[in-house]
Amino acid sequence: MNLPATSLRLSPTTVADQAADALRRKIMSGELPEGFQLRQDALASEFGISRIPVREALVQLEGEGLVRIVPHKGAVVSELSVDEISELFMLRALLEPVLLKKSAPRLTAEDFAQLDAILAEYKQELDAQRMTRWGELNTRLHDVLMSRAGQPRTLAIVATLLQQTDRYTRLQLSLSVDSCRRAEEEHEALVNLCRAGEVRAAAALLKRHIEHACEELEQFILSRRRQ
């Protein structure tokens, strides 16, 4: 089966990581849909590399939840899971507000300049309907907001959760213009509340922001399953 994409020739250095990055982008963008079989020989030919780094890339993506390696079938793009969405977003809704409460009072002028730049870039990408970077910018904003919490272990856990929900976040943002505009407004409100020192209000808004994304995704997937 041919890949539904333009060929990407990879350089010989760190080819497994490059293959993982290329496949991650294809899965995140929806170019490789859920259930799509990822044949090692086809991927190796597509990227111009051997099957060994392709196999390593697939194992890496399995660890991120983007790929399932099925006995006697090989690797397939993971299906969208309501149970997984509920669990991952629940954990984010528990942990991120806690980190924000600790981080917000310590955010610097440089941090706020970076947050403002991310907001401006998100608005630019949104106005141009370039959805490929929405998930990345969302993750960057959340990362900066929590970066001064001083809790490296919890931050590492949340970083993993953000990575694991990135695919879902991109899907949620792509559902409608209203979803994107609401995310933009809530992000701007979060930054402004932190800037004003309204830490409790910011943490409460962050919790609602995450929970709303979860609810919207659950409704979308369940409705699609019923079709």
From TrEMBL:
TM helices/strands, residue ranges: none
Keywords tagged on the record: DNA-binding, Transcription, Transcription regulation
Highest taxon above the source species: Bacteria
Occurrences of domain HTH gntR-type (ranges): 13-80
Single annotated GO MF: DNA-binding transcription factor activity
Entry keyword Oxidoreductase: no
Protein's UniProt keywords contain Repeat: no
Protein name, per record: FCD domain-containing protein
Pfam families: FCD, GntR
Organism whose genome encodes this protein: Duganella alba
Lineage: Bacteria, Pseudomonadati, Pseudomonadota, Betaproteobacteria, Burkholderiales
